[in-house]
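Let's see one such:

===
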Amino acid sequence: MRKLLFLFTLTALFWFTNAINGFAQNKSDAETYEADVIVYGGTSGAVTAAVQVIKEGKSVIVVSPDKHLGGLSAGGLGFTDTGDKSVIGGLAREFYHRVFMHYDKPDAWKWQKKEEYGNKGQGTPAMDGADRTMWIFEPSVAEKVFEDFVKENNVKIYRDEWLDRGKGLVKMNGRIVSFKTLSGKTFKGKMFIDATYEGDLMASAGVKYHVGREANSVYNEEWNGVQAEVFQHGHYFKNNISPYKVEGDPKSGLLPYVSAEKIARNGSGDNKIQAYCFRMCLSSNPDNRIPFPKPEGYDAAKYELLARVYKAGWTETFNKYDPIPNKKTDTNNHGPFSTDYIGMNYDYPDATYERRKEIIRDHELYQKGLMYFLANDPRVPADVQTEMKKWGLPKDEFKDNGGWPHQIYVREARRMIGLGVMTENETLGKTPVSQSIGMGSYSLDAHNAQRYVKADGFVQNEGDIGVHPKKPYSISYASIVPKKEECQNLFAPLCLSSSHIAFGSIRMEPVFMILGQSAASAAVQAINRKVSVQDVDYAKLKEQLLKDKQKLEL
């Protein structure tokens, strides 16, 4: 009897163990997802890349760290930086056409009559009969357009999935095989597209990159590196303002947000990057307005430098409250002390997720504190305070975040050092570009990178550059692919290979959409011909891009 009981127990244990192992295997299989192309990111460029893969008959998965799609385009940057709109084609132009179609409907105008807003930001049909466009929009409208793109094309998206940057990426024979996210999911593909602002997938794949400003000598440039005493916008101190806690007394110590570091020589390189901010969407409608609250840890003394700017007679507070539909704004940095949190983002590109969250939170508190200061501090001129009290965060935008944008403006982070590098020489037309995959036209626009004390003891900002190309320029295929010895199945259309100052022009949202789409077409070509990204037949790629109405050259 005992022998039979032992045999029965042993048999049961055998079947139980096999069942558990089978369950574990099935669970493992269920946590592995595979497609022809894996797109990492939730930005505007990620969406256009994914849609293009589907349109060309391949499978795609979008792995998005973000819960919301569209990046900055749906995160407050509704007053689009376009440059020459005629060179914006493909899915990017389709996006702006859909925005136009939305605002062409009467029910789109909840807080304002369409006639009152007028036709601001609307394009006219091109000579070839292209559809109407609108380049100014509310964040929620942009997000809806991106979500519509995804639904119509049945794009598979896994949201709030963060790349395991420590040990998640598997690479064999120079190619990415798969990567794992922090939740344990594994994503396998033939081709990979890093469509993030930060370039985390690119960096994890062992691709070389640069953070900061190159010296002018690196690429034979004029506008890269430190640019002290160069003022091409209004974002500098036009009057002599003391940076010390007690005006004129260095022994009293520096005010907040002023660096004690001495300015380097002009044209020299450093690890500094242009400032970040949130592109706040504000509302002036009393029924759709959340007053600016006093933020956690608010300290009015942190804004003493701005108080001194007002005391010196500055009057440009509202110059970049750009109007978007329904009595809202896309509010951008303007002036010597504004929404740009200068010098507080240097470690962001390579930082851990935890540290990035700290930086983002710090930016949020700084900017919320700034708005509260403007609306309430007695050192702010009365007319400014009166006007500020008319504004607040919108109740109907970013509803899950109290009206605050869910995306910080990462103006630059990592930039790949790829097969080819876009520099100011290409963007300014000094050097020809081969194998174009899209075009840019906006000015070489870099925001301030530091706030320092001049030799005369007064404060100044440095890094604000705005150099206009004489005409639109092409962007090379070589700038979105790594060197072959580093990775053979990866594209980086957002953190592309570019010098700091050239990136100041390329980094515009329409261009990111264009490059995302072009990267996707190249990925499909590489899969079809079973070649590396560096060996894609450009003639075939160009044929596809033109078919999709991309603009490649003037």
Summary: Residues 2-30 form the longest helix (29 residues). Residues 60 and 83 are 31 Å apart (CA to CA). The first strand starts at residue 32 and ends at 40.
